[in-house]
Design brief:
about 450 residues; alpha/beta; 2 domains; five-stranded mixed sheet; membrane; pentosyltransferase activity
Length: about 450
């Protein structure tokens, strides 16, 4: 099994802290408060670990994998209401095996949870619109789903529902629904404020502003380069659905009607994505909530272009989907097992450090939240310190630092022995340095 990558180790360590120390609202990672956002995914990981017996790759990734499957089923179900069975199945596959989702298909990060709860709230709301009336119970239900979403990654992703539904109400002049939308959005706002009040310490606002990419403005050239890259990445990562979806309007047969849900889907998927593209410091993964909406629209377009001069696009779409599905199957069943050590670099690094510490025990310290490697080091507790404090640590000790900090460690401890016991090449390229008397 592939070892942890990206932010997986951090989420797993938070779950481990929740289980070990009961720090549900304010967890710690190696002695550092984790306060940039609520921790829904680690809560779920901890819940799974209670059943499986431990926090590991399986328990960490299971919630995200379930979220992907459930979202794909929602995509298929919504598409089937207004399209053929083949179109609905294609829509589910277009979502699940888009390049954007393939990156996160089995990754313990909250983006897939955000996508699930956002799209579920959209469907609950649309069911009311389709029935002719969105009642207060339905608005509150949407609000509760969005509150759960906000516990995964903060309030920003609520923008997909808020902006998409607001745009639809404005376009269709459904002003009578504005009070319901307002009450709906108060629920995730209240949940976020309650969490913030529960964990707040002076100075936390700087962390939250930084997490929301509001603390500093990039230079114009850097902004243009990065955000253009985000736009191009989105186009590639949403293939082939993003090419098929617009044809719903261009290739419409005069004898057919565009499904009523198409407009709100387009607004839900498009308005906030535009904001993401222009937001300083954004990333293409922040636009993942648009993926199910685009997949549904692509499913509608599949039926719309049948028998038209664009029919050839159906064959290309099926071909691309088959390639993407085959890629995932080969990756999971051939490539990763054949190159197991390459995909287990973080695990191997952490276990190498663990063996060195167990052979010569001493308190362990780190300077970098290299959780993907340190998660696998089960040789006792580890605490993070500022690099400037490396010269004041009591000996004997183990210092687990990025390789480039080893010379700094030697300079700060001129009268002590600094022996490099382990060097690793994965992630932060950690070195385990034994600090002793000369």
């Amino acid at each position: 099994m592939r070892s942890f990558i990206w932010e997986e180790g951090t989420n797993a360590e938070i779950a481990r802290d929740i289980l070990s120390n009961g720090n549900l609202l304010q967890p710690e990672v190696y002695g550092i408060r984790w306060n940039e956002k609520p921790s829904l995914l680690p809560w779920l990981i901890a819940g799974v670990a209670k059943i499986t017996g431990q926090v590991n790759e399986f328990s960490a990734r299971l919630p995200a994998m379930i979220a992907v499957v459930v979202t794909a089923l929602l995509v298929q179900s919504l598409t089937r209401r207004n399209a053929s069975l083949n179109a609905s199945l294609l829509a589910g596959l277009l979502f699940m095996f888009s390049p954007m989702l393939l990156q996160k298909l089995a990754i313990a990060e909250p983006d897939t949870l955000v996508t699930l709860f956002s799209f579920a709230a959209f469907i609950v709301w649309w069911d009311g619109v389709e029935a002719g009336h969105v009642g207060w119970q339905r608005w509150i239900g949407c609000g509760l789903l969005l509150a759960i979403l906000a516990m995964a990654k903060g309030p920003q992703p609520v923008g997909y529902f808020a902006l998409g539904v607001s745009a639809y109400l404005a376009v269709t002049r459904r002003w009578r629904d504005l009070p319901g939308l307002f009450v709906c959005l108060l629920i995730p706002a209240g949940a976020t404020i309650a969490w913030a009040a529960a964990v707040y310490r002076p100075g936390d606002e700087a962390t939250w502003l930084s997490y929301a990419r509001l603390r500093s403005a990039p230079g114009l050239s850097d902004y243009a380069f990065r955000n253009t890259a985000v736009l191009l990445s989105l186009v590639v990562e949403l293939m082939p659905a993003i090419l098929l979806a617009p044809l719903l309007w261009r290739a419409q047969d005069p004898g057919k009607t565009i499904p009523p849900v198409a407009l709100p889907l387009a607004l839900y998927g498009g308005v906030c994505t535009i904001a993401v593209v222009f937001w300083p410091g954004s990333n293409s993964r922040h636009a993942m909530p648009c993926a199910p909406a685009i997949a549904v629209l692509a499913g509608f377009a599949w039926d719309a272009i049948a028998g038209t001069k664009q029919t050839w696009l159906r064959r290309i779409t099926v071909g691309v989907v088959c390639v993407l599905v085959a890629f995932q199957i080969v990756l999971a069943n051939v490539v990763i097992p054949s190159f197991a050590d390459s995909f287990a670099g973080s695990r191997i690094a952490g276990q190498s450090i663990e063996r060195a510490i167990r052979a010569n025990p001493a308190p362990a310290f780190c300077t970098d939240l290299a959780t993907n490697q340190l998660f696998y080091m089960n040789a006792g507790p580890i605490r993070c310190v500022d690099p400037a404090d490396l010269g004041s640590i009591a000996i004997p000790a183990w210092l687990i630092v990025p390789r480039e900090q080893v010379p700094l460690l030697a300079r700060l401890n001129p009268d002590r022995s600094t022996r490099v016991a382990v060097e690793t090449d994965s992630g932060s390229r950690l070195s385990a340095v034994r600090l002793d008397k000369r």
